[in-house]
């Protein structure tokens, strides 16, 4: 019998970027629960059937949901179904980025018994051990809950693990890990890869206005790291026990402490690990990048790096999104990566607050001027808890507030503010994909002459339809 079932819900609408990699938050919580002697099951609704979930739920005492904004409505609907039709006796707790920023909103649903605010490893273990002991349970740090009189009780933010080295390895044995692919699979023949994911650090000290990490959720501002030895131990474990030959570092700021990132590379080399790895979510601190650092990364197995370029407008970077690095630093980092032959991608945003048509054109021109293998253009998505969301509430006009649509790859403009207009964002977003990818020089050099273009052709065609039409 599984006393605890942990669920990663499938959003009702968005499909891009939700099912590629393991949900590490749930996997670490499951491992901590098991270490404390509890029986636990995980279920990724993006990868596994509802029939299989039914088997896991019938005798569960506590059911935990990891909830992103785009999955709020789907999560509530599933929780109601569990309570009404499957297991009326279980308790349900919501956690993750959205509940951390909006605990009252979710605790107000009758099907939700508790909300976890912050990191959940310690809180979830304490909760299952005191589920029927209300005097202790209702004082657990990080717990929001509905009192008997209908009001919402709050116990602040959960204590986070100070020592990440003390965490057990994530519970890969509880997920269909064979079905995990690379987060950004279009650059290589993914059929040859056995993928693993790692998050070697938590927290971010920066304050980008669009970012949930900068908004103190869910990992808090304090930057904490695993030691290089712990990181490489986990890589060895993934290789030995699960046959992993490709690792993705999902950190927000993997290279914030350059010497630590270099030590990870040196340990991989020292232990002679035959591993390839990538940084798919973007190297955000481009100012810390040197060619020597990237050369060491490449020597230790780095084959793919993405960079958080964001905007080609200095005004947008400095005054609006508060990126705290420069266009020239982005350019130097990307040029160094390209010189070394690392597959190089970059992220760009359209629709920042008060952005003009001319500033969006600057971003397109910037992207085309860089020696990139791939560019991912997105529409700025305001998430609850960010300073961007608060600014829109104060100064702007919401165009879309349906959580089902909240994803940066959904071709949706969510707001207008200042000089920003919906029609301009959509126009320049589509123009960016066409003008970057349909250049004859790009099609020949980066597409036609590469084998992965043909092995990934169906996927590339689907993405072309999604982003260019």
How would you portray this structure in words?
By secondary structure, the protein is an alpha/beta fold. The chain has two domains: 4-154, Cobalamin-binding domain (Rossmann fold); 181-468, pyruvate-formate lyase- activating enzyme (Alpha-Beta Horseshoe), CATH 3.80.30.20. It contains 18 helices and 17 strands. The strands form four sheets. It has a seven-stranded mixed sheet, sandwiched between helices. Strands 8-11-12-13-14-15 form a six-stranded parallel sheet, covered by helices on one side. It has a two-stranded antiparallel ribbon with strand order 9-10. β12, α10 (291-299) and β13 (302-310) form a beta-alpha-beta unit. α8 crosses α9 (258-270). The longest helix is centred in the C-terminal third of the chain and has 16 residues, at 422-437. The protein is globular, with a radius of gyration of 22 Å. 47% of the residues are buried. The model has no long low-confidence stretch (mean pLDDT 90).
Main sheet makeup:
7 strands, mixed
Taking pLDDT < 50 over at least 5 consecutive residues as the criterion, the unreliable ranges are: none
Total separate domains: 2
Distance between the termini: 49 Å
Strand adjacency order, main sheet: 2-1-3-4-5-6-7
Radius of gyration: 22 Å
**What is the CATH superfamily label of the largest domain?**
tm_1862 like domain
């Amino acid at each position: 019998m599984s006393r605890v079932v942990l669920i990663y819900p499938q959003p009702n609408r968005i499909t891009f970027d939700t099912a590629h990699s393991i949900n590490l938050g749930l996997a670490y919580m499951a491992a901590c629960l098991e270490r404390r002697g509890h029986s636990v099951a995980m279920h990724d609704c993006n990868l596994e059937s509802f029939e299989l979930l039914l088997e896991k739920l019938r005798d569960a005492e506590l059911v935990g949901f990891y909830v992103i904004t785009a999955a709020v409505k789907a999560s509530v609907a599933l929780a109601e179904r569990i309570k009404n039709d499957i297991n009326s006796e279980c308790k349900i707790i919501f956690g993750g980025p959205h509940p951390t920023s909006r605990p009252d909103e979710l605790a107000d649903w009758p099907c939700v018994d508790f909300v976890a605010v912050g990191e959940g490893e310690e809180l979830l273990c304490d909760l299952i051990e005191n589920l029927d002991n209300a005097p202790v349970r209702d004082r657990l740090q990080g717990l929001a809950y509905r009192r008997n009189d209908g009001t919402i009780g709050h116990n602040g933010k959960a204590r986070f693990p100070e020592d990440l080295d003390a965490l057990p390895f994530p519970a890969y044995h509880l997920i269909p890990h064979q079905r995990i692919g690379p987060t950004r699979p279009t650059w290589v023949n993914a059929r040859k890869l056995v993928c693993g994911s790692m998050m070697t650090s938590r927290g971010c000290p920066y304050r980008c206005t669009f970012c949930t990490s900068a908004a103190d959720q869910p990992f808090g501002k304090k930057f904490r790291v695993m030691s290089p030895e712990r990181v490489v131990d986990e890589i060895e474990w993934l290789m030995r026990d699960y046959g992993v030959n490709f690792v993705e570092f999902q950190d927000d700021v993997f290279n914030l402490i350059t010497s630590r990132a270099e030590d990870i590379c040196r340990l991989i080399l020292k232990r002679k690990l035959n591993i390839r790895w990538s940084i798919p979510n973007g190297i955000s601190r481009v100012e810390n990048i040197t060619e020597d650092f990237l050369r060491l990364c490449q020597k230790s197995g780095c084959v793919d790096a993405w960079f958080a370029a964001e905007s080609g407008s200095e005004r947008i970077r400095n005054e609006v999104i508060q990126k705290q690095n420069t266009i020239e630093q982005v350019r130097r980092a990307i040029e160094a990566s390209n010189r070394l032959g690392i597959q190089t991608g970059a992220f760009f945003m359209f629709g920042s607050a008060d952005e003009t048509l001319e500033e969006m054109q600057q971003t397109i021109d910037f992207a085309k001027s860089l020696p990139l293998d791939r560019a991912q253009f997105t529409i700025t998505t305001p998430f609850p808890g960010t300073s961007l969301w608060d600014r829109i509430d104060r100064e702007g006009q919401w165009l879309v507030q349906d959580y089902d649509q909240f994803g940066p790859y959904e071709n949706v403009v969510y707001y207008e503010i200042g000089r920003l207009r919906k029609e301009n964002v959509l126009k320049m977003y589509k123009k960016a994909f066409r003008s970057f990818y349909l250049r004859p020089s790009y099609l020949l050099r980066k597409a036609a002459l590469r084998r992965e273009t043909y092995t990934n052709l169906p996927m590339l065609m689907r993405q072309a339809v999604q982003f260019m039409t």
